[in-house]
Amino acid sequence: MKFAFMKSHVHKFKVDQMAKVFEVSRAGYYKYLQRKPGVRAARALALLAKIKQIHQGKRRNYGSPRVHRELLKQQEQCSRRYVARLMRQHGISSKIRKHWKKTTRSNHDPARIAPNLLAQNFTVAAPNLAWVADITYIWTREGWLYLAAVMDLFSRKIVGFSTSANIDTALVLRALEQAVCHRQPGKGLIHHSDRGSQYSSDQFRNFLWKCGIRPSMSAKGHCYDNAVAESFFHTLKTEHTNFCEYASRAEAAASVFEYIEVFYNRERSHSTLDYVSPAQFEQAYCESRLKLAQPAIEAIIL
After folding, report:
1. CA–CA–CA angle 61, 62, 63 (5° rounding)
2. Strands of 214-217's sheet, edge to edge?
3. What is the DSSP annotation of the chain?
4. In this model, does residue 264 exceed pLDDT 60?
5. pLDDT digits over 110-162, tens only?
6. pTM of the predicted structure, to 2 decimals
7. What is the separation, in whole angstroms, between the first and last Cα of the chain?
């Protein structure tokens, strides 16, 4: 331990001074430096290098649980507790999370309020059965940039989103139109949101009806009714936008686009999905469906 301390502080103190304080010889210290690490130490160093690589590759957003799962994917046998200890010893941690708050104007006209069809049931069996939507805001030097997003509850994938300087119906409508265009959902899809005036407007409700989408809304004052959508915005802000200073709305919009399309949907592992990304989760689902249908396809061909 004395030699280890000397090695880590050699840039601050002279070797002679530290050797005198610890009552050890300079020769013993230099012999320590030449000593090769033991098997356990070498193993720890190799594992630490992989941990650092994963942590940096995932934008420093991963804590020990996600880093551990990435190591397991690489066939690295280690315990989560050991990974956490190594990360703690070397000051490796996920980004500091900051508090945030969300505000939207609710529409209290009973005729425009849809029933809560989800009832906090956020688990669905297949894609395009239930989507959740919400709005948040991001500060730039030009003023607020508003972001509307639509998420598929099956895979937690963001299937549509839009940004604007205005928090209006057009904002949420563009996000939904993008989702419908990309996913082509069947009739009966549930679209869940809060009671914001944007979601209860005639224009938005008419588009839902035209697409055969069933509207669903949170109960008044029940933030947990749309917890999954709000959780996504929390992740976006605490992992990404809270650490950025945007000079313009255009810069912020490009940054959000890159985070969602490149990282969140395709790379970031999700604990609800057994630590795979939304895109990987959907791909696995499609492959399993194709495998089940293979005998029927072969029978038709033959």
Report:
1. 125
2. 157-164, 143-152, 130-140, 190-193, 214-217
3. -HHHHHHHTTTTS-HHHHHHHHT--HHHHHHHHHSPP-HHHHHHHHHHHHHHHHHHHTTT---HHHHHHHHHHTT----HHHHHHHHHHTT--PPPP-------PBP--GGGPPP-SSTT----SSTTSEEEEEEEEEEETTEEEEEEEEEETTTTEEEEEEEESS-SHHHHHHHHHHHHHHH---TT-EEEE--BTTTTSHHHHHHHHHHTPEEEEPPTT-GGGGHHHHHHHHHHHHHTGGG---SSHHHHHHHHHHIIIIIITTT--BGGGTSB-HHHHHHHHHHHHHHHHHHHHHHHH-
4. yes
5. 778 999 999 999 999 999 999 999 999 999 999 999 999 999 999 999 999 99
6. 0.71
7. 73
Cα–Cα distance, 215 to 190 (Å, whole number): 6
**Residue 250 pLDDT exceeds 90:** yes
Chain centre to alpha carbon of residue 233: 9
Pick the closest to residue 132 from 109, 151, 146, 112 (CA basis): 151
Range 95-101, long-range pairs (CB < 8 A, 24+ positions): 95/60, 95/61, 95/238, 95/239, 95/243, 96/238, 97/234, 97/238, 98/237, 98/238, 98/242, 100/233, 100/234, 100/237, 100/238, 100/242
Given a contact cutoff of 8 angstroms between Cβ atoms, the answer to whether 165 and 145 are in contact is yes
Amino acid 194 reads D
Neighbours of 163 (CB within 10 A): 21
**98 to 11, 45, 95: CA distances (angstroms):** 35, 32, 9
Count the alpha carbons within 13 Å of 166 in the hemisphere toward its beta carbon. Answer: 7
How many CA atoms lie within 13 Å of 235's alpha carbon, on the beta-carbon side?
A: 19
